[in-house]
Amino acid sequence: MTLRKVAFTNAKGGVAKTTTCVNVGAALARRGHRTLLIDCDTQGQVTKSLGVRAGEGLAELVQGEAGLEDVQIEARENLFVIAGGGTLSGAKRLISRRDMRSELVLSEALADLRGYDFVLLDTAPSWDVLNVNCLFYVEELLIPVSMEVLALQGIGDFLGRVRQVQLYREGLRISGIIPTFYDARVRKSAEILEQLEQHFPGAVWPAVRYNSKLSEAPGFGQHIFEYAKKSNGAADHARLAERLAKGA
Fold it and tell me: How far is CA 63 from CA 105, 106, 142, 193, in A?
């Protein structure tokens, strides 16, 4: 199996990017796929979600202070992490100061990465130099969108920026849009999902239902399959991982 590089990305915060990235990654690992999660956010939530103590991470790698072998943390069987966190601010400054091909700094840092089936990037809720680097590194984008009006309105602006990157980054494609916080009991939730499907026919993946277990699990340093394996949250992320693994 060739290495597949996927970014979970959206410039809006609070849409469950980290939750989706971590739990889809855990589901892939449970299916036997060697999976690496790369935390590209200064909040560093990926390692916290899995109860992993972060040492040297992505910032040190990008800045040349650590090698690839130093920053890969084994969090679970088949599931590895490269930590993010506050030190990424320095990495962003380094990227900004580079005169030539600054958009490829991350790709160069990860060029020798081997031994994985999937590399999943959890990006920051912003549009900055590191996020642009993420888009130049990956081939696939998965865009979580929460079922609220503001999130729906913002997706158009974000996709416009993605299209600008696609002019210079051949092969970058949007694999899917993932509705999050879907609540069938709330009419607005169903209406927004319907609008998403109208705007992006064929691109909307199965929705992740609102499930309090998903927000509780990181507090215990566990993914959803450890914390509540019989929950809707576990079922929904297992379904997303299956879809991703099939390449659909």
Answer: 9, 10, 27, 41
Determine how many CB atoms are found less than 10 A away from the CB of residue 131.
23
In the chain, the amino acid numbered 8 is F
**Do residues 217 and 227 lie in contact, with contact meaning Cβ atoms separated by under 8 Å?**
yes
84 vs 47: CA distance, rounded Å: 8
Q: pTM value?
A: 0.95
Show the beta-strand stretches assigned E in 129-240: 140-146, 173-180
Determine phi and psi for 184, rounding to 5 degrees: -65, -20
Local structure of 224: helix, strand or coil:
helix
- Angle between the N-to-C axes of helices 187-199 and 149-166, in degrees from 0 to 180, rounded to the nearest 10: 20
Which contacts (CB < 8 Å, 24+ apart) does range 68-73 have? 68/109, 68/110, 68/112, 68/113, 72/36, 73/47
Q: Answer whether residue 248 shows pLDDT above 70.
A: no
Reading the block at residue 211, the tokens are 């499930």
Q: Give one DSSP letter per residue of 123-137, joined into a string.
A: E-SS-SHHHHHHHHH
Say how far apart CA 129 and CA 16 lie, in whole Å: 22
Give 91's contacts (C-beta < 8 A, 6+ positions apart): 58, 59, 62, 63, 130
- The three-point CA angle 89-92-98 to 5° equals 145
Give 73-131 pLDDT, tens digit per residue: 999 999 999 999 989 999 999 999 988 899 999 999 999 999 999 999 999 998 899 99
